[in-house]
């Protein structure tokens, strides 16, 4: 039987995505310089839950000294125009104490924490040396989920020792498991969601053997409706990230943002998207000593290059000019995916949480998801999430202290109130 969420959790969790940024951007003037201030603002905007990379492997699986973890930018100006990557300062943290302080601050502000890991995707790319990344890759691919499970179990032990375990909403072994180094060694003739099932099932079993009363799960990018057979049977929460892309996907395909560098259409990108002073792709990289970071992140160099050097007005204008061609398909996909995710959760007898969404990965200065089109997509998504009886949702992945949407107070308050207050459609009774 699935482990239920604790009775003291909110009936509907309003989630802000703090990911790994809560420890990578703690320098002067950065969004997480003061954790109490960040929580206070979150509560003011209507949030009661944050979702984080708790760096479990670093703390409990790497064997590294974590009392002085040095974190910083990808190198030089590389990544400074890219969301999540625009770290301004090199900082040093006592990682274990910083984790405890986050949970103490959550307790002070009566908030809860979804505990996850981005470590096999990008967290170690912000370290100033590659020891963390090397320790992750040293684990055999078949054992990575189990090692993460033990690290998460150790983390829960630590929180319990300090009287903070009640702040944990639930545990995710890892973020977006089908995208990153967890898939290494899998057969390429079947979907990664399906291929990962045995590994993830064993990882969840391992965590449950140590903490049978703590809900545990994994989460997936998008809602893989044709691969849901690959979701482990032993999850306690169904967590999906419905990024629909649509017109943004059209831009990514047109300009090769996620394709190989050898096929990158440099002239077309320069003509339509870039600032006049942009270098060529071949000339844009971190300093030589930091090139290992390109392997430690799942974001392709082609995408970082365009995000770093685009004219954000040109980027957004391209999206707005073509949005009409994609509008109905994007709306239909978003509603269909949320409905499909709800039906899947109902079939498993577990709650549904939408931990990220909705359009996709835009440059740091883009305003498409924060503007009139994106804001209405946010409203649609949270209304739909409420109607299907979801237990938790984000307003948008960009609604967090390290994104410009954090300043859009009215939108966030409206969405969080709508999600909390709108009744579920009786057809989606849990």
Task: Describe the protein.
- With 430 residues, the protein is an alpha/beta fold.
- It has one domain (13-428): Alpha-Beta Barrel (TIM Barrel), CATH 3.20.20.
- It contains 14 helices and eleven strands.
- The strands form two sheets. It has a nine-stranded parallel sheet. Strands 3-4 form a two-stranded antiparallel ribbon.
- The chain is globular and about 55 Å long.
Q: Which terms would index this structure?
A:
430 residues; 11 strands; two-stranded antiparallel sheet; 39% helix; alpha/beta; TIM Barrel; 9-stranded parallel beta sheet
Question: Mind sketching the topology for me?
Answer:
Layout: E1 13-19, H1 21-24, H2 35-44, E2 49-53, H3 56-60, E3 69-71, E4 91-93, H4 95-108, E5 112-116, H5 131-137, H6 144-161, E6 168-172, H7 192-195, H8 197-210, E7 216-217, E8 219-221, E9 238-241, H9 247-254, H10 266-272, H11 301-309, H12 312-348, E10 352-354, H13 372-387, E11 392-394, H14 409-421
Parallel strand pairs: 1-2, 1-11, 2-5, 5-6, 6-7, 8-9, 9-10, 10-11
Antiparallel strand pairs: 3-4
Helix pairs in contact: 6-8, 12-13, 13-14
């Amino acid at each position: 039987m699935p482990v239920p969420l604790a009775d003291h959790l909110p009936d509907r969790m309003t989630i802000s995505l703090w990911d790994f940024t809560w420890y990578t951007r703690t320098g002067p003037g950065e969004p997480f310089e003061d954790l109490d201030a960040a929580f206070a603002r979150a509560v003011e905007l209507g949030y009661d839950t944050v979702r984080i990379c708790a760096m479990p492997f670093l703390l409990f699986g790497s064997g590294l000294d974590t009392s002085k973890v040095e974190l910083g930018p990808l190198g030089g100006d590389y990544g400074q125009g890219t969301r999540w990557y625009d770290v301004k300062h090199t900082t040093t943290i006592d990682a274990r104490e910083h984790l405890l302080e986050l949970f103490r601050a959550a307790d002070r502000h009566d908030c809860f924490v979804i505990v996850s890991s981005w470590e096999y995707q990008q967290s170690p790319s912000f370290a100033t040396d590659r020891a963390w990344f090397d320790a992750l890759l040293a684990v055999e691919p078949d054992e990575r989920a189990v090692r993460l499970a033990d690290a998460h179990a150790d983390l829960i032990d630590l929180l319990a020792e300090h009287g903070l375990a009640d702040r944990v909403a639930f545990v995710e072994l890892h973020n977006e498991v089908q995208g990153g180094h967890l898939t290494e060694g899998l057969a390429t003739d079947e979907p990664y969601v399906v291929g990962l099932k045995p590994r993830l099932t064993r990882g969840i079993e391992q965590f449950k053997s140590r903490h049978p009363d703590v809900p545990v799960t994994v989460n997936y990018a998008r809602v893989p409706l044709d691969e849901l057979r690959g979701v482990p049977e032993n999850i306690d929460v169904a967590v999906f990230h419905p990024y629909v892309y649509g017109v943004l996907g059209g831009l990514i395909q047109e300009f090769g943002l996620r394709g190989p560098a050898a096929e990158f259409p440099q002239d077309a990108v320069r003509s339509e998207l870039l600032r006049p002073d942009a270098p060529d792709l071949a000339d844009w990289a971190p300093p030589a000593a930091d090139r290992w970071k390109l392997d430690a992140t799942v974001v392709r160099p082609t995408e970082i290059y365009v995000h770093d050097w685009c004219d954000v007005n040109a980027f957004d204008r391209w999206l707005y000019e073509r949005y009409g061609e994609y509008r109905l398909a994007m709306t239909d996909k978003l509603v269909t995916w949320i409905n499909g995710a709800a039906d899947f959760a109902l079939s498993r007898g577990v709650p549904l949480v939408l931990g990220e969404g909705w359009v996709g990965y835009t440059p740091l200065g883009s305003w498409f998801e924060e503007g009139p089109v994106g804001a209405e997509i946010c409203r649609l998504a949270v209304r739909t999430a409420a109607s299907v009886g979801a237990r938790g949702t984000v307003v948008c992945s960009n609604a967090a202290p390290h994104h410009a949407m954090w300043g859009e107070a009215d939108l966030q308050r409206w969405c969080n109130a709508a999600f909390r207050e709108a009744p579920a459609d009786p057809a989606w009774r849990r």
